[in-house]
């Protein structure tokens, strides 16, 4: 694909298009005098000519190919500043919607057909004239639509836009969005989201209603929904202050509202009829969103709304929480992750007898338990549940605190469940602790200290024995389909717990890699299929010249290489490593691996011991256990 002369790219774009990390681009700029000079941007974020970059990469034998989608995206980014980029993407979406609805108009009449665009896309929010001024860009977008289809073309542009504005946009996790839809949408009908963002929660509905305070996001949301062939009405505006969907009642409401908003309209909305369960306190904007959602669902309809964990227990909101419980409106509170958010599921009262129990679920370790628990509760709200789900009597919750936090109502295990868990924990603890006696490696005690010639990590890297890699700058490890090994995982010795989106700049870990954190924790990698997380350094060795276990052991003991005695941060390039033949390295590496394994077993034994102790206390208190010498 021919690159336009006026299209620019930043360092991150170059890395993505060339399939390398951002560090590689920095190295090219530093080491190659003929690397293209910036043509714009700032000193900290320079912009380069795409044709010049493409020519340089090809001249230097680097793999580089600009797809039609990337060409359109870079043209969009070059056309306006970041503040107006969203509006331009939305206008591109409006044109794609026009192509979707009248595919023959552009083919037969070209740019002359654009006169009909306002009429064809009249159901989009915002300006009635959403045409693009750059006709060359219009032609590129039409080519992209012909190649991918209008929907896939716009989703590609949206994906790039979200990546470029990840810190400004709040996107509901895909797995959470799907769960909310499955819980609240019982059958075909109208689904409403009063804080719809860019439409994530409305994508699977056949008929949608939405409102979004940001006009650009409202436009993006509408295009995404309408390109799927759904019937939709999306309006721009502040849902709480200026309800653009007043009077609309949906079959289900799904919402991921903004949290902790102080200026949500407390003074102006004091007498609003939506506050059926009480005037939300000034600092409880989330309870205003809950009641707004209930006001927009039909009697008997369901609401699934994300809430901060504190909303389940904050004292100012206890009156509203109590009223929601008494009316039978609040049906379930689900912990989705440690620290939140929580998911509240509500049903607008329809005159039937409300349930006497509330479903509470701790799904912080496994979201798959939520839907079966909810289905069982819907079938019989009075039934007892097991595992990390339970029902709590509403009358027991209506105390001075009205604390709905699932952690406070951890279910007592039934006899069979407790017997299984206790015996399993006991057997695993005994098995793991029994292995400790044989765990230390065989080490020879020397009469005199052995001095070994040494070099530094920095010198080994210069010689090509070690590649030192780090995650891309500003990488997010909070959500996405790809696992991420974080610094906390390394410190705890656990599996990758972070999540991120696919990006060619990511560093993927491999078995045999050595990873360290800024605080000096060192671990050897035994599994792959995860990305390297922020604040973590990876060392990848040439196994024919350097043993990874040998390197890991000496990195672990590199206390003398710290920046200064009062610092806990490790200056890894100054860390010293003995210069030994590869067979000797491997002997040291074997010993170090056995010590690392012993450390893991001790950590596992401690964790199992803590579990066994907790179950022991719970069993004695709950009546599942008694001391062996106790008589009936």
From TrEMBL:
Residues 152-338 form the DNA methylase adenine-specific domain. SUPFAM superfamilies: DNA methylase specificity domain, S-adenosyl-L-methionine-dependent methyltransferases. One of its GO terms (biological process) is methylation. Keywords: DNA-binding, Methyltransferase, Restriction system, Transferase. GO terms for molecular function: DNA binding; N-methyltransferase activity. This is N-6 DNA Methylase.
């Amino acid at each position: 694909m021919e690159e336009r002369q006026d299209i620019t790219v930043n360092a991150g774009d170059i890395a993505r298009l060339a399939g390398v990390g951002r560090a590689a681009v920095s190295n090219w700029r530093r080491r190659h005098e003929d690397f293209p000079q910036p043509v714009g941007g700032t000193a900290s974020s320079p912009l380069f000519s795409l044709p010049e970059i493409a020519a340089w990469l090809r001249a230097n034998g680097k793999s580089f190919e600009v797809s039609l989608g990337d060409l359109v995206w870079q043209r969009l980014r070059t056309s306006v500043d970041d503040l107006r980029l969203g509006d331009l993407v939305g206008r591109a979406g409006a044109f794609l919607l026009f192509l979707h609805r009248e595919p023959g108009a552009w083919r037969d009449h070209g740019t002359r057909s654009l006169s009909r665009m306002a009429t064809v896309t009249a159901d989009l929010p915002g300006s009635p004239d959403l045409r693009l001024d750059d006709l060359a860009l219009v032609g590129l977008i039409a080519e992209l639509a012909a190649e991918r289809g209008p929907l896939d073309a716009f989703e590609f542009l949206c994906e790039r836009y979200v990546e470029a504005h990840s810190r400004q946009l709040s996107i509901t996790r895909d797995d959470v969005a799907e769960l909310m839809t499955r819980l609240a949408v019982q059958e075909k009908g109208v689904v409403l989201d009063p804080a719809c963002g860019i439409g994530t929660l409305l994508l699977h509905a056949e008929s949608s209603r939405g409102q979004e305070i940001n006009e650009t996001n409202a436009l993006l949301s509408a295009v995404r929904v309408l390109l799927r062939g759904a019937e939709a009405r999306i309006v721009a505006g502040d849902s709480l202050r200026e309800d653009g969907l007043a009077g609309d009642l949906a079959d289900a409401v799904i919402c991921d509202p903004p949290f902790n908003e102080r200026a949500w309209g407390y003074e102006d909305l004091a007498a609003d009829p939506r506050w059926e369960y009480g005037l939300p306190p000034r600092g409880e904007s989330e309870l205003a969103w809950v009641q707004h959602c209930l006001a927009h669902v039909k009697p008997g309809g369901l609401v699934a709304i994300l809430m901060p964990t504190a909303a389940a227990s904050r004292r100012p909101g206890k009156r509203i929480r109590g009223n929601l419980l008494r009316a039978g409106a609040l049906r379930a509170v689900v912990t989705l992750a440690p620290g939140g958010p929580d998911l509240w599921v509500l049903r607008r009262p329809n005159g039937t007898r409300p349930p006497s129990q509330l479903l509470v679920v701790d799904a912080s370790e496994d979201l798959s338990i939520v839907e079966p628990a909810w289905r069982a509760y819907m079938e019989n709200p009075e039934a007892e549940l097991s595992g990390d789900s339970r029902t709590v009597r509403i009358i027991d919750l209506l105390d001075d605190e009205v604390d709905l936090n699932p952690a406070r109502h951890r279910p007592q295990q039934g006899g069979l469940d407790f017997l299984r868990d206790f015996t399993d924990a006991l057997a695993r603890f005994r098995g793991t602790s029994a292995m400790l006696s044989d765990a230390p490696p065989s080490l020879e005690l020397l009469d005199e200290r052995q001095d070994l010639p040494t070099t530094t990590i920095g010198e080994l890297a210069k010689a090509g024995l070690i590649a030192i890699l780090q995650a891309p700058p500003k990488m997010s490890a909070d959500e996405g389909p790809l696992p991420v090994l974080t610094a906390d995982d390394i410190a705890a010795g656990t599996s990758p717990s972070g999540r991120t989106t696919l990006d060619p700049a990511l560093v993927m870990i491999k078995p045999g890699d050595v990873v360290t954190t800024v605080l000096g924790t060192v671990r050897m990698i035994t599994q792959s299929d995860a990305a390297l997380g922020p604040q973590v350094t990876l060392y990848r060795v040439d196994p024919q010249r350097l043993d990874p276990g040998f390197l890991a052991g000496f990195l672990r003991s590199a206390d003398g290489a710290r920046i200064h005695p009062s610092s806990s941060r490790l200056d890894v390039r100054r860390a010293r490593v003995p210069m030994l033949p590869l067979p000797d390295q491997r002997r040291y590496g074997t010993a170090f691996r056995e010590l690392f394994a012993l450390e893991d077993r001790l950590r596992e034994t401690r964790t199992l011991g803590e579990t066994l102790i907790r179950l022991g206390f719970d069993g004695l208190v709950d009546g599942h256990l008694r001391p062996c010498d106790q008589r009936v």
